[in-house]
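Project outcomes to date are best conveyed with an example. Our students and postdoctoral researchers have been running inverse folding experiments weekly, and each run begins with a structure described purely in tokens. The record below, which covers 318 residues, was selected by the lab manager from last quarter's runs and is presented without edits.
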């Protein structure tokens, strides 16, 4: 995977390989204050026809943003462009030139936002058409903006990060990010046996913990869906299809863990969610793009999963 160095795209020839064999995720560079800052200044505010979202349907982080766009009735307000499933030497590419500038690659957007940008070229990207810049390229922040930033325009006040649960949500998010969301990547991108085994043990310890937690409540926090559930969902959804084999996360499938499997189907079957899911993109992206892990680039035909099968998670909600 290449990256930008001082505004220039550089392909990866192994020069960024980690020395300890562990996968180290780089922090996102564009963070934003949406709405007034402490001094009362407003750089980005909720407006019609001002923002554009770039996502990959394969990417679990971008998928979070797509889910919140759907849940929060933002589809008309914030148009979306989907990158091609294959991420190759030039990073994320567009199958058709993207609609704002006719760019063919996502790195051109980063260059437009900052001609001296140094960092990874990741999705999701929330773009500001007015200032022609990246508002934010961190999914955790984009979903917070979507959760409440546009309520006045949409009239949708559903709240997935309610004030009274914030401390609890933040705690569970941190645990799930490290053990599971990023945990699968730490297994898949490890380049040393011990680094892989450590990541594998941590991942399944975290999944065991969540499996136990879901034995007596419907969602991560009691019986109410919060941001924490959607952040976990996008990783669980890809688990049996990709991470189990491609990232060698193969102690168990999610389908082997009854509470997690019921929980995953429950979330998958929530209104509108299926429209945000593309297993075609998910499989094509991972198995084709990561040549170092799968040099033949053969995309497996299976597995067949029953995401629409009934679940009994509503037994907790009475
Ligand atoms: N912390 C970021 C991570 C986003 C991310 O790593 N996206 C991946 C796709 S799943 C990506 O674009 N990778 C390209 C790269 O790292 O070069 C977020 O949550 O938004």
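After processing, the design step wrote out the following sequence:
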């Amino acid at each position: 995977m290449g990256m930008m160095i001082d505004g220039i795209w550089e392909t990866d020839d192994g020069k960024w390989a980690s020395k300890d064999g562990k996968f180290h995720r780089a922090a996102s560079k564009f963070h934003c204050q949406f709405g007034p800052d402490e001094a009362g200044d407003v750089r980005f505010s909720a407006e019609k026809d001002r923002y554009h979202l770039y996502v990959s349907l394969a990417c679990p982080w971008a998928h979070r943003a797509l889910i919140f766009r759907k849940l929060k009735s933002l589809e008309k307000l914030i148009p979306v462009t989907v990158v091609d499933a294959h991420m190759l030497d030039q990073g994320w590419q567009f199958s058709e030139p993207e609609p704002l500038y006719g760019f063919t690659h996502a790195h051109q957007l980063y260059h437009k936002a900052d001609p001296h940008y140094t960092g990874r070229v990741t999705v999701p990207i929330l773009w500001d058409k007015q200032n022609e810049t990246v508002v934010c390229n961190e999914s955790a922040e984009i979903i917070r903006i979507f959760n409440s930033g546009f309520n006045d325009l949409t009239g949708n006040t559903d709240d997935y990060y309610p004030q009274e649960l914030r401390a609890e949500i933040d705690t569970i998010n941190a645990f799930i990010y490290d053990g599971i969301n990023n945990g699968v990547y730490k297994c898949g991108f490890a380049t040393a046996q011990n680094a892989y085994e450590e990541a594998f043990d941590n991942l399944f310890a975290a999944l065991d913990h969540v499996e136990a937690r879901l034995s007596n409540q419907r969602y991560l926090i009691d019986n109410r869906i919060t941001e924490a559930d959607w952040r976990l969902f996008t990783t669980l959804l890809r688990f049996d299809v990709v991470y189990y084999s491609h990232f060698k996360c193969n102690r168990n499938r999610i389908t082997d863990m009854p509470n997690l499997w019921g929980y995953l189907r429950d979330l998958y079957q929530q209104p509108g969610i299926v429209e945000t899911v593309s297993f075609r993109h998910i499989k094509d992206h991972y198995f084709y793009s990561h040549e170092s892990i799968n040099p033949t680039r053969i995309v497996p035909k299976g597995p067949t999963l029953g995401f629409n099968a009934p679940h009994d998670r509503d037994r907790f909600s009475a």
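The radius of gyration is 19 Å. The mean pLDDT is 96. The training component of this project remains on track.
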